[in-house]
UniProtKB/TrEMBL annotation:
Name this protein carries in UniProt: Uncharacterized protein
Domain of life where this protein originates: Eukaryota
Source organism phylogeny: Eukaryota, Metazoa, Spiralia, Lophotrochozoa, Mollusca
Keyword Membrane included in the entry's annotation: yes
Signal peptide from the UniProt entry: 1-19
Membrane-crossing residue ranges in chain numbering: 451-468, 537-555, 561-582
Keyword set, alphabetical order: Membrane, Signal, Transmembrane, Transmembrane helix
Annotated organism of origin: Dreissena polymorpha (Zebra mussel)
């Protein structure tokens, strides 16, 4: 019987890892380089940058709005708007979101006003190049005085008002429901008509006809705008300068695609943890496999952060009032799988979004558990009889009166390619219990080559894929990542099973204890990271030591089991070590860092400030600036010819240059420049009230006035 079991388990295990060597061979055959996507002019396409947030504290709001401000200012255009779509419950935090929005609006108004003055004087080196092409160049033929008196304030006011915050009424479908409602609002729908049927959704259904969003000026600004695209983003997602225009060009060349999925680059800097650097390194090493597989299938996963075509999404995923579709299950967490199945995402590996990796192993583990829970929910819908019915029965027994029976209105059928992509995470998840079961069973079964199978599995997962990615430039990083992967993933046979069990129990019992990742990160920063690691992982160490001692004393020596137990026992040490920075120092608490900045600027109240310096190099800390190729430049470029200056009172270039030498616009003060240069966190929050601009004006959402 043991022999039969181990053959079955080994078959499942080796079948699960078989895709790694298959992907590697495919990469070697077709190449793992980034494919350059076809592009087309996108002058008429409109997009709204949609950041989604459920804030648990002010730091969440500050981080999200900082990211949104950088994304918006770095892609400023008449066709681009930005909105923070908030599901925050706390009234004080909701009010804080609006306060910070107004402060960013004020900063944007100030920066644009100064740029407009520089543009009017022909001092183009003082104007952000993207703003010059997309905002100011259209006023090149307007008389200077007319521009200053009739246009400038209106331009600043308009772009400041496109930086928005709206608050959603319902929590149905969580993040997915947030941007669904935003799309409907853009199409002119103010009241809910989707996910209102209690026959399908029980207590999770919302009331028909209830408002989608709480009434506000920003909501009124979005209604019936009919944006072509929504760029869906998380609160920690960065958008490189000009990246939005690049995505729109790709979308314009592929109008049949409902999702343009850019690559996700994990970003980290010198002051970040070793774990973050290892995660970013791992992603770079395995990127060629992603490039090859998406090129082979001409399709990719949807990562939850992508450019979505609103009309196609509504038609295929939501439906109309008269013909509801509602393909995404109301309680599902991994909604991306259903959306990808219908809209066939195009992988745009030649452009990218930025995201921070998990700060340490513990927060990575928390995130993985949340994802595991989402995959289990998916399995309940994909295999509704074999897996869904037993799970529903257990839920009914354990949840009792809290049990809420749901079903999907329109089922989604997956073809082979979509199914392979959709179930990738689920396959990897089930590798862990199969591996643990194999390690246990092989002790009780006599095998001629005891370790051959596990060596093949580990080689296929950790070593063989490197054949397609390793080269002279990165071989040192490949070796380092391989060693780190052995230390991190060998315990996964045990830790992964515990994670799956906890995710399974959370789904069955509805007993979910949510631990905010930010709280864990701050715990690591404010105390000794080794102590913090042991506090979260001590159970694995104690269990591994006890079981290891028992095996050594009472049973025969078993090398494979002891290797797993040894690495698991040392997990807190690995977690603590990789929680240090690259110079092996503890990370500094962000709250204390902000307090030092506030004291330096003479500000005591956090709520009094929330601004970032908007100079032309402000984005260098979050990735390379997108630079179009020569062919792309031919598609969209506004030429600034020498004769343009005559409209502003300059007869020739010599007169212009002489004017620029004698009338320089006021630049940033030295203390601000020093703060930028020495900042430990990009985008430090600076005071609005320092009075450092001679032409500064304020935008507070109601009026403008001279400072």
């Amino acid at each position: 019987m043991s022999g039969i079991l181990i053959v079955i388990v080994l078959g499942v295990l080796q079948g699960s890892v078989l895709e790694f060597p298959v992907q590697t061979i495919a990469t070697l055959l077709i190449g793992g380089e980034r494919r350059d996507n076809k592009r087309a002019p996108c002058d008429r396409l409109t997009v709204i940058l949609n950041y989604n947030l459920l804030a648990t504290g002010k730091d969440d709001i500050l981080e999200c709005l900082e990211k949104m401000y950088k994304a918006y200012v770095g892609n400023l255009s008449p066709n681009v708007s930005a909105v923070l779509l908030s599901a925050t419950n706390d009234e004080e935090l909701k009010e804080y979101e609006l306060q910070i929005r107004d402060k960013y609006r004020s900063l944007l108004y100030d920066d644009l006003y100064r740029e407009g003055l520089a543009f009017a004087r022909g001092e183009y080196e003082l104007v952000d190049p993207i703003h010059l092409d997309n905002v100011w160049a259209m006023y090149i033929d307007v008389n200077r005085n007319v521009f200053l008196t009739d246009y400038l304030e209106e331009i600043c006011d308009r772009y400041a008002r496109e930086f928005m915050v709206v608050h959603r009424v319902s929590r149905v479908l969580r993040k997915c429901g947030q941007y669904q409602d935003l799309m409907l609002l853009s199409e002119g729908e103010c009241k809910a008509y989707s996910y209102c049927d209690k026959r399908y959704y029980g207590r999770l259904a919302r009331e028909p006809g209830e408002a989608l969003f709480h009434t506000s000026e920003d909501v009124s600004n979005i209604i019936d705008r009919k944006f072509n695209y929504t760029l869906v983003l998380d609160s920690d997602t960065g958008v490189p300068r000009g990246g939005v225009f690049d995505m729109l060009r790709i979308a314009a060349a592929h109008p049949e695609r409902g999702i343009i999925q850019p690559s996700i680059k994990l970003h980290c800097g010198p002051g970040d943890t070793l774990f973050m650097h290892l995660e970013a390194m791992r992603q770079n090493i395995y990127e060629p496999l992603t490039n090859a597989i998406t090129a082979l299938f001409k399709q990719s996963s949807y990562f939850g952060k992508a450019l979505i075509k609103n009309k196609l999404y509504i038609d295929y995923v939501i439906g109309s009032k008269d013909d509801l579709i509602e393909r995404v299950p109301v309680d599902v967490l991994s909604h991306e799988t259903y959306e990808a199945a219908l809209l066939k995402p195009l992988y745009a590996g030649s452009t990218f979004l930025l995201e921070e990796p998990s700060h340490n192993y513990v927060t990575w583990n928390i995130r993985e558990r949340r994802w595991n829970r989402g995959e289990i929910l998916l399995a309940m819908y994909f295999w509704k009889n074999a897996f869904g019915k037993p799970m529903r029965w257990l839920q009914k027994k354990l949840q009792r009166s809290k049990f809420n029976k749901t079903k999907v209105r329109t089922e989604t059928k997956l073809d082979f390619v979509t199914s392979y992509i959709a179930h990738s995470a689920l396959r990897h998840m089930f590798m862990k219990p199969a591996l643990l079961l194999y390690i246990i069973l092989q002790y009780f079964v006599h095998l001629r080559n005891r370790y051959a199978s596990i060596i093949i599995v580990m080689f296929s997962v950790l070593v063989f894929p490197k054949f397609a990615t390793c080269n002279r430039k990165n071989y040192k990083f490949v070796i380092l990542e391989t060693i780190a992967s052995i230390l991190q993933f060998t315990p996964e046979a045990l830790v992964g099973c515990v994670r799956i069990w906890r995710a399974l129990y959370a789904n069955v019992s509805l007993n979910v204890k949510w631990v905010p990742q930010r709280a864990v990160e701050e715990d690591f920063k404010s105390s000794n990271p080794f102590l913090s690691s042991f506090k979260h992982l001590w159970g694995y160490s104690v269990f591994s030591v006890l079981v290891g001692v028992l095996f050594v004393i009472f049973l025969d020596y078993e090398g494979l089991l002891l290797v797993m137990l040894t690495t698991t026992a040392g997990l807190p040490v690995y977690a603590g070590l990789t929680s240090l920075t690259t110079d092996f120092k503890c990370c500094k608490p962000s709250s204390k860092l902000l307090q030092r900045v506030f004291r330096r600027r003479g500000i005591l109240d956090k709520s009094a400030i929330a601004n970032v310096v908007a100079d032309s190099n402000m984005y260098s800390s979050i990735g390379n600036i997108y630079e179009p190729s020569l062919e792309e430049s031919k598609i969209e470029h506004t030429a600034l010819m020498p004769n343009m200056y005559t409209n502003y009172g300059f007869d020739d270039i010599a007169q212009l240059l002489n004017h620029k030498n004698t009338h320089k616009m006021e630049s940033w003060s030295s203390d601000v420049e020093s703060m930028i240069a020495n900042s430990e966190r990009y985008g430090q929050m600076l005071s609005l009230s320092s009075g450092r601009y001679s032409h500064s004006r304020r935008f507070d959402g109601r009026e403008k006035h001279m400072s």
